[in-house]
Amino acid sequence: MGPQGAGTPGDLHLGTATPWVQGSIVWAISDPWERGQLKSMLSTCSGAGCGGGGFQKLRAQPADHPIFGEAHGRRRCENHSACLLGLMYSARHPQQAGNERGNAPAPWPLGPPARRPAMSTLLDLKSSVLRQVQACPSFRRRTEEEAGSSSAEAPAPSQEAWKPGDGVEFFAQMRLVLKKGEGRQRLPRREVLLRSGSPAPAEPVDPNRGLRPLSPEEVETLYEEALYTVLHRAGTMGPDRVDDEDALLAYLSQVFSTSPEEHAEAVERVRKAKAPAYALKVSVMRAKNLLAKDPNGFSDPYCMLGILPASGASKEPPEKEQRFGFRKGSRRGGGTRDPLPAKCIQVTEVKSSTLNPVWKEHFLFEIEDVSTDQLHLDIWDHDDDVSLVEACRKLNEVMGLKGMGRYFKQIVKSARANGASGPTEDHSDDFLGCLNIPIREVPVAGEDRWFKLEPRSSASRVQGECHLVLKLITTQRDTSMSRRGSSGFRSYQLLLGSLLQFEHRAEEPDASSWCGELSGPAATILSLHGAQSNLSPLQLAVLHWQVSSRHHQTHSLDYGYLLGLLEDMQAHWEEAASLRQEQEEGLADSFSAFSEFGLQLLRQLRDYFPATNSTAVYRLELLLKCLVKLQLFQPSFEICPFETELNMDVTAALKRGNREWYDRLLNSKCPREQPAPQRLPGLIELADAVYEDLQAGYGIYASLFHSILKVDFFTLTFHQLECLVAEEAWVLLKELSPKMTLEMASGLFELYLTLADIQRFWSSVPGRDGRSLALAGIHVPFLPAMKLWLQALRDQTRWRLQSAIDVDTLEPVDASSKHSGSAAAAGLCFSLIQELWVRLAWPDPTQAQGLGMQLGQDMCEATLFYTELLRKKVDAQPGAAGEAVSEPLCAVLNDVELVRKAAGQALRGLAWPEGAGGPEGELPRPLLSCTQALDEDLQREARTVTAHLTSKMVGDIRKYVQHVSLSPDSIQNDEAVAPLMKYLDEKLALLNASLVKENLDRVLEALWELLLQAILQALGANRDVSADFYGRFHFALEALVNFFHAEGQGLPLESLRDGSYKRLEEELRLHKCSTRECIEQFYLDKLKHRPMEKNRFGRLSVRCYYEAAEQRLAVEVLHAADLLPLDANGLSDPFVIVELCPPHLFPLVRSQRTQVKARTLHPVYDELFHFSVPAEACRRHAACVLFTVMDHDWLSTNDFAGEAALSLGGVCGVARPQAGGGARAGQPITLHLRQPKAQVRSALRMLEGRANKEAQDFVKRLRELEKCMEGDA
């Protein structure tokens, strides 16, 4: 029903739901840690829309209800206000946001609301608040029984349990203890432990372990060696090398700290020395993709190579394409060349039938002039059976051939003639390609690459590449070190040490991360010296490792650099046989020194590689990899640097380091010389340090040691430290037990939690069993201290609640909260106690059950103690005269609800431990009974406060309902109801601003019941009024339903339309009907009535059909069964009255009845009755046949046995034509007898109250019919 015209000056439209809710949910405690403690309770809330564990922030919608918040598609959990123990609340009314009290709420918004979504299931409380308001005792008085159940005589806290106070300090200490265990509930994660990326701690320095200092004489000779290397450098410098001689000399002057005069003198002296003799090392490795010269598609290639001196260089112009070759010049060219001396020629073996030959042959050529000499190489296809190598060797032995100007083919022919036994022939080899490489272009560091083969002329056809390794070295050096027989290996070692020390000093202050990157001059000088000294790659790798590893022990280097040196050495280890014995022994000594240094660092693992420092942990990882890499070289040494296996050495070092670390902690925190009470705080710190160390061991160190060294670091460390701390704890407990005090019990409680955490830590690691630990059974001696501490907890809880109540003003703690400060303190106390129990996790099930029972009873008593204090507090508050909504009462109601949820959740946390003799996760029966009794008492307390809160609104509600009833029919319905709706809107806005959701629902249900009862009373007080009167109340009722439903944000429709609503709605519906409609409704209700118990009043079998030809209705009463025994003999004398109803449809038809069947409950009638009525009248909606079964009594009035109604609309012949025209068509129908229900009686009463003639005639006729039946009987 919509609005009926213009509204009042307020323009209130009541035909739709009234928007009266909006807001947001906020936190009420600013301390993040306290919010973290209370947030654990969110897990119990599973309502839809409660994001993040039961709460969400609602957006304010301009057209939404100012109390319930947004109504478009959002569903809110019914428990969201208590999910945070009352610290999260619905928003204020818009006009209440700035001022908590005293402001008038906003009027109804204009316009119709949006579509209303369905609401989630809400709390369904009984609608009996009105009776509680009328009959409940005063909030200031309690009966003895109720006072006893709510612990009105709760004992005061024991003054002997703890020093009296406000409990704040105790719970603050308890918070610190619990907070300490927050990170111990799960296995540590690596990313959590690594909190710092600062530089790693400096490693120890021992000058005796580093490089040996050089004597002045050694420095001088080394300086000379370095200058000689630079001044006589040969070859091409790479792009990363320094080719400036002056820059290199200046750098050496800095390294050796010489004055300019000394430097110039040394340079001049070295320049006058004899130049070194050079030689070229050539390794012919392989060739590929050569031309096929033989008929089989292959070739038989071999290489002929030699040094082409400057005198043998071609004198032809550069534009000529002819090139030098080991053969006679081309006749077509007409030119000739100077011959190449035969002693400069070397030849490889012939590789038969291949285009990709592999030779791997090495040659050494003396170089006369580095700047002009060239290396020349030819590749030929061999076509003779004579060994060319052997022929060339024999040819070089012929004295007369030395210096002869013969070309290569002539030399080959002579060699073959002298070396072979057969007749000589002119055999011709095929040319496959050549190479010409100037010596001056060979890089200083050597060259290892593929060279593309070149033709001798444009007419030559060649293809393929040849792989050569070239290195330019010196064979004779005119230096002091060389003359004394010092090898290039030794001189390079000394030079590298000097350069490394000089370079590292330049990297300060963060020298520990230096990766050994040398400057350009240093790298150039070392490259020159290594090449000139003919050091192999393996020798260079060995030298760099030896010098760097020694230097690292006094000046830390990056372990990645050292690992790279070991990998470089491993890559060339196949050349290990080339190392001399003294070089191998030096390498073994360096391995031994480094491994000893590394094991020393592992002993002090926590000092030099702290688990919280990511940089240090990475250095540890690289150190372990270096140690493992050392062991890979162990089988290659005849003199083994390791006495035992590496993992055994590491294990021994770790064990020793663990003990040293623990002893330092023990001596600093709890030395045994102190008395036991003084050692207790230190032992707590020691146990905490051990736990943190084990966390670091598991999260950081264990994976490193296991993956790299296959050492079980965590097991080794855990067993060692656990045994040590357990031993210390047993000793301390033995000393403290005879003289236990509450202060000691508090310390032992904290110590036990840490020891239990250590024990659980081991058990939480997969595959670990805690039964073999030294801490197993440690809980037994702690039990007396635990019991004593729980007593202190009980007393401190009461003192904390008492102090919270004392300072409580029964006002919200801040603008966004709806409870007072004492409830927040109580909720936090219970949250801490619940977390305490989880942390305690007492291992003995029987003992745990006893401790849990005691703790649960203490919490129940503390909760009742709090409510009693709260009651006394509110009793002492002066009441606000005429204030319908009392903010102190609202705060109390919210406090009770918050504490009920907090205590309930904490008590449910005291479930059966595993193996305690009951279902795991369920409460023991005594504790369950205690919990249920506590919840019932707190629910009763909440209902009582709700009743007192709503009782102040009873008078106003009745006044506004009376205003609706007295409104004249001339005004519109919405105008008549507007004052009531405005009053409710204002009061509910205030209530919503002051109550949490659960309590608001309680108040809404109480107010709804109040309104229904007030309207029923108004209807009962007004008789014989107009239909507009009832229409006005029907409009008001529908408007109130929409108002309280609030688009799904208020009470659910099924709850609103139940109970008293049904009775009121039925009365209003009947009052709106006309007399005839009311009479028809009277019979329709009979037709709709279905008995709940089908056989209680018996059954009646009938047959009914319409005879169209005669225009009459035939009704057969066949038989009845299981009737009620209404006579003293246990039987009845039943008869059946048959009548057509309602009377105004059949005004000329009289009722008929069957014969009386004496003394039976199963009468058989088989009687036929005819009623002459038109078919149209039978088709009317309310037309029916009413069968009334009566018990005939001779000496008194007849007794009613039951009735049944049959609608005529479905009778054969009325709804459809009669099949076959038979006289008795239709099947028998079994009707279940019943008694008239309340709705039928109410319709009759409604007719009795009407003064019109038709209603009075109908009632009178029913009365006469009853008298007539009695008279006939």
Features:
1273 residues; alpha+beta; Immunoglobulin-like; Tetracycline Repressor, domain 2; Methane Monooxygenase Hydroxylase, Chain G, domain 1; 4-stranded antiparallel sheet; 39 helices; 10% strand
Account of the protein in words:
Residues 148-161 have a biased composition (Low complexity). Belongs to the unc-13 family. The protein is an alpha+beta fold. Among the domains are: 277-310 and 340-412 and 427-476, C2 domain (Immunoglobulin-like); 780-913, Tetracycline Repressor, domain 2 (Orthogonal Bundle), CATH 1.10.357.50; 952-1072, Methane Monooxygenase Hydroxylase, Chain G, domain 1, CATH 1.20.58; 1092-1268, Sandwich (Immunoglobulin-like), CATH 2.60.40. The strands form five sheets. It has a four-stranded antiparallel sheet with strand order 6-3-10-9, with no helix packed on it. The model is unreliable at 1-162, 312-323, 327-340, 398-412, 418-427 and 1268-1273 (pLDDT under 50).
